[in-house]
Amino acid sequence: MSAFSLAGSVRSGERTARSIVEEHLAAIADGETEINAFNLVMADSALERADRLDALVAKGGDPGPLAGIPVALKDNMCTRGVPTTCGSRILDGWRPPYNATVVERLNDAGAVLLGKTNMDEFAMGSSTENSAFGPTFNPCDTTRVPGGSSGGSAAAVAAGFTPLSLGSDTGGSIRQPAALCGVVGVKPTYGRVSRYGLVAFASSLDQIGPFANSVVDAAMLLEVIAGHDPMDSTSIPAAAPDLLGVLDQGVEGLRVGIIEEISGSGPTGLEGFSPDVQSRLAEAAETLAAAGATVEKTSVPSTVFGLSAYYVIAPAEASSNLARFDGVRFGLRVDAENTVDMNAATRTAGFGDEVKRRIMLGTYALSAGYYDAYYGKSQKVRTLIVEDFARAYGSYDLLLSPTAPTTAFPIGEKIDDPMLMYLSDVCTIPSNLAGHPAMSVPFGVGDDGLPVGVQVLAPANGEASMFRAAAVLEAATGGLTGSTT
Question: Which of 127, 149, 165, 378 is flagged as catalytic?
């Protein structure tokens, strides 16, 4: 049963919030040891919250659109009084004094916070192998990665531990794990969802979004968390979009372009795409065409440079954002004879290898003599990407590509080769650089039997058309993608 239907059953009194929470806690107890999706399961508080919601329903009240539905949070979203680690030892013991805006909106909508999910440290990774709390394993095949950096959130939904979860997407960290785990994952337009209370990785790229087992559930959750927030200066001053109301409108008359460069096709296409992934993309294109859309190949030339620009811009912003973790104000502190040595010892002990790598890369790119050559040039490439997308959207309502070049790869296969790991995000990064929405929809499996995700891209604030296409693709595959616990 979808989360949308479960919430309706709680509001009607057919089901209790407690029974739903208990079922999911039981699923976690049965399978979490094998998956390692959670850094913290908030069982006691979840049951207490469920009882309060049931009491409200018994009195004739309406808890809201997410009535009694468990939701898991990526462990980089602040929860008042609850440990928030970002998958790092450097935040050991830190309990935020406030809630992220998305947490407040979930509470207002009647959701039940189930726990904090595992992630690549400070969202830096594509496999959830960089967590200080060990890797998360893909529920579809536990010898494979779940993707990253929001791998815990994706795996929790795919394993049936929770109907819904939230992740953050800086370069594909929602969409790529959604594809590898076979669930729906959405990166909204930059500014559509408040970043207040999201521990920053790269502030001009980060965006919070939903994971779900169905398009309707993802739409419901995005409607809840979206909308203007005065606490976030980059928040779009507009109400949350109506997504549930457009899901049955189809794609008749929409123009869809398949991006050659990030589909492994055409003379300028990037390499490394599995033939089975390309086959599922072709089938998805045929599905949209059969539903009345005009579908053809197109070129967005500068997307081939997205990976290179991203791995200068994102580390540069991380270098600045992570400077606050110094052993004085948050979490871990390693004592030393003076402040400088204490800062160095704390960061040496607290940060993992990938975080250190990106901080050093970003600091170098921002240093005197190299700023213009690296950071400045990368920002110019970012502008080219924005301009190329603008030209493409002059001809097309939506764009299409694979979400990831391959299906889920084995644990350990890429962890010692950062460049190979970074290529996992080649399809998703351009949307972050442009600030546009994009989502991954499960669309069949590869030759290895593992899920393949198709990425639907839209112009800024184009979520409604994006969800219309996603609903058509989902209908062609039969609906709910994961567990129906």
Answer: 149
The CATH code belonging to domain 3-244 is: 3.90.1300.10
CATH topology match: 3-244 vs 255-302+384-477: yes
Of 2, 74, 126, 235, the catalytic one is 74
Where do the domains of the chain lie? 3-244, 255-302+384-477, 309-371
pLDDT tens per residue across span 5-54: 999 999 999 999 999 999 999 999 999 999 999 999 999 999 999 999 99
Taking the C-alpha atoms of residue 385 and residue 248, their distance in angstroms, rounded to an integer, is 32
The C-alpha atoms of residue 124 and residue 313 are separated, in whole angstroms, by 13
Model pTM greater than 0.90?
yes
Q: Tell me whether residue 356 is one of the annotated catalytic residues.
A: no
CATH topology of domain 255-302+384-477: Amidase signature (AS) enzymes (3.90.1300)
Q: Annotated catalytic residue: which of 131, 173, 235, 263?
A: 173
CA 294/CA 105 separation, integer angstroms? 38
For the segment 316-348, what is each residue's pLDDT rounded down to a tens digit? 999 999 999 999 988 999 999 999 999 999 999
Distances (CA, A) of 188 to 132, 168, 176, 335: 28, 10, 14, 42
Extract the tokens encoding 478.
């039969």
Known active-site residue 263: no
User: Is 149 annotated as catalytic?
Assistant: yes
